[in-house]
Amino acid sequence: MVTCIWHASTRDEIKGLKAGSSCCEAATASYNNKAHSLTITVSGNIRAGGSNMPPSAATKVGHTPPDGGWGWAVVFGSFISIGFSYAFPKSLTIYFKEIQEYFSVSYSEIAWLSSVMLASMYAGGPVSSVLVNRFGSRPVVMVGGLMVSAGMVLASFGQTIMHLYLCVGVIGGLGLALNLQPALTIIGTYFKVKRPMANGLAMAGSPVILFTLAPLNQFLFDSFGWRGSFLILGAIVLNCCVAGALMRPVNSNTQPKIELPERNRAAAVEAAASDTSEQSADLLTGENQDESKRQGCLHTFIDLSLFKHRGFLIYLIGNVVMFFGFFAPVVFMAPYAKHQGIDEYSAAFLLSIFALVDMFVRPATGFIGNTKWIRPRIQYFFSFAVSFNGVCHLLCPLLPGYTGLVVYAVIFGFGFGMVCALLFEVLMDLVGAHRFSSAVGLVTIIECGPVLLGPPLSGALVDIYGEYKYMYYACGVIMLVPGIYFFIMHYFNYKKLDEEQRQSVAVGLRPCEEAVKLKMSQDGNSAHETDG
Amino acid sequence: MSASWKQILFQILLLVSCRYINTKTPGPTPPPLVPITSLPTDERSVILEGESHTEKVELLNPVNLALACTWTGNQNKQPNITGFWRKDGDEVENSQVTVQLEGDQYKLKRVFSIVSEESLGSYSCVFGSEEAKIEFVLAAPQIGEVRDKPIVSYVGDSGVIACKMDETKPKPITWNWYKANGTDKEQIFAVAEPPRHVIKNEERKTKLVVYNLTEADGGLYYCGAVYAISTTMSHVELKVISFQEPLKPFIAILIEVIVLVAGILLYERCQSKKDYTAGNGTIEQTNTMTQGENNGPEEGSSVRQRKV
Questions:
Q1: Predicted TM-score of the model (pTM)
Q2: pLDDT at site A523
Q3: Which of A28, A253, A260 sits opposite B271 (nearest CB)?
Q4: Which ipTM was obtained for this model?
Q5: CA B273, B279, B280: angle at the middle one, nearest 5?
Q6: In sequence order, what are the beta bridge partners of B225?
């Protein structure tokens, strides 16, 4: 703890100190009425102090995140939105066979429907970010829900396959994009201390909703055929609007928290301290800020200065490589099992085991990520999760028989769940909740390529060699390399961030002292005011 | 004397002419010969060591099929044993023979003429009094995947029903479609104008498209794979429903969503009103007391935001 005490003789001087000097506003001030003295305490995030918050986190959102209360309802809303975004395209595959026969098209043409939907969902990321930055999460999610619903209802009247591509693929995909981004962003505004837990819970929506949608879709298909099912799915997806209604903007209802009790004061001090670090980074990169202002029109919509952000670049490069091998093993799990001679139902059961493990691992990962040992160094946890996936895929082909495949499905479920739960948490940790919505928009559109190309490339590997094991080796390597890359890069990143923080505390104190000396000399002869 | 010469000459002449007459008279036409020997021949044999065995035989064309049963016998190996043949439960006439024990085995063989659907079925060779039995099930290739759930289609829409023969089985000559009419099956023919039923045949797959569906079009449809020997059938059910059916759950869920959204927004408005009236009192108090503490970070944050 570094404490500096300034004495000011008048109230005006105190105000002047607060408004003028940049570091002092981050400090808590207590005015001693009798002694006419003002004590300003600045606490730096130096090891001796010990803080539970990671050095790079920055709130910068103009309020203290409530970390509870209505936040849990928002987590539930995000759970539903995220669940629908990820699970909906996957669950539609049940209808493909009948639609293929109805329109007399080939299998690849119908598989395009999934691809178009996924591509729209990822490409719509920046659009979503822009809208969230402008309007906030709630209206965007509600509009997204309405869009998907409208797309499905229109598709149920479709007469050609093109009609389906447009309605389900483009409109539906865009609607899902408008669901995904705001749901992730709003968690950052509601949670700070418990954010990994909230993220883990919200991301658990994907396997849970997939688990419910799969048998539901089968039931709808048997009762109503594909047209009726699309109509009813259009209604079911409207529940995203309910989720959107839950996403109350943080500032409208809550008052700014007043630091009366000791506990909250400590939290405020810590929040202030982490703000100092981010702010000091701004001081050091002040030039960058001026440049970004000059970018003008585009910058008000989406924060392109993120491309100069070290952490963001590390995350982006690692993720782009990782996503090539991330989804392919899921897609090929059942065909691989059938290739080994296992019957269709047992192969489908493997996927159920995988989804079940995934469902429980995600909140558990969030909980672990929240503990005081992991939270400050959560990037290492993410690197571990990615490497774990890589190792899992390298060992998979070595396990024999059906039991081996079940063991692989369980371990893969662990790995997949860990990475998914932490995927957006680490991004929030790196760029801060304020810039998160722009960051996630840029990340999803850039990841669009690997996500779409990954499974077909893996399929090509399988076709060339006739065996699945080479594909698993390739996926294992593709995931292990980013894992190790993350470990190394984040080691350096943490070192640099700690350095920057130490520097910023030192830099921040100097202008303070100068400003105070100036003021003191100016008002040296003014009379003391007495306060009533 | 010249008279006897004339008589002999006359008789000779008669003989010669009679012979000619004989060959000219049309005799009764011989019956047309049944070409039993023109059918191809095939053989199926089974060696039985236990008490019974069933063998499936897949046939495409009419054939003379020789079925051979070999039985290793049981504990008391009698030198002679009776054996007979059965078709579909009924004993084949004159099939009972006495079988000699040859090299520790009993052999029974018979040739059957399989020409049509009636000839197909279950053929069994029986040793002794039901001591050993081998059953041969003769059938045309069966359609493997039978869809047990109905295909659902809508009134006014078109319905598509498909049938498929396995890749491993031989391909049929053609496909026929039938609609169930009570207990009968009525064959469907593709009528050109107006196009109501369209049949698309592709080696191992067939598709029946029914346009402008009505409620009456619902029911059981049969697809038949035609082989030289017989036609194998498979059935699919078509269910035709009106568009109101899925509309009911749709509207129910829509109402649920509207109720929930309205409920959540109203609850929020009530809560914010309460907080506003409660908060107003406390805000004034806290403002005076902790003005220093409060305004500091708040003003600072606004300054910070302006910078960004």
A1: 0.72
A2: 61
A3: A253
A4: 0.71
A5: 95
A6: B175, B232
